[in-house]
Model the fold of this input.
Amino acid sequence: MRVPFSMPVRVLAGTVLGVFAGVFAFAEAAHWRSSHRRLGDCDSSGSADRRSRSDRWSSPGVRALTAAGRDETTADSDQIIIVLGYANRGQRPNGINRFRVRAGLRSIDPTARSTLLILCGGAVTGRTPEALILERFARDELGFTGRAVLEEQSATTWENIANAIPIIDCELTPATTISIASNSHHAEKARDHLWQMRPDLARRLVRGGDYRFGEQPLVKPIAAVRGLLALRALDREDAKHAAGH
Done:
């Protein structure tokens, strides 16, 4: 005996599954596309002026740490990964910051001669700088033992990049590449900022580890909509800025 109204239920279930599939596909495509935009041309033929070792870490709010917490000012980095912090009220990293640290660590190229993490973020919504929260999570919970620099003054994405630039300049070698770790759209926004501030450094931008297929399926659709709106506003601002010049 057939169950009454079984066909409408099937149709409804198929419709719901179709909507979910469409949303999933949209989010995946949006994040994938964003992770491939505003990158550099891997042209690392130029080199930056090197500062003396005595003033390499003179910028306020910047500390260089080895795994043991000692100052490290001698080694150069062929790979620089900028991890952008997010507002964090407590001592423990929130879900967004945990994701960004993981994205930063999986951006590490095991074939690189050396790697430097620049962890960015001041004490925006809490008492502890976001950079320090990121660093503790990377070392204490994810087992990171490499070199890291904490930038503890920035409160916006623009400041993240602006304050990271002096650190990059100190570490720059002819073979240096730069990647930015955050969610895909936020990382693209930060890459745009670097293109505006320092096109010579932006040409060194390579993809980070922010995009993985199927990751965070409930978060990605919301992040995609918000990210696309933010990038559209950023494009309008860039267009106005270009027209003004």
In short: The CA atoms of residues 109 and 125 lie 33 Å apart.
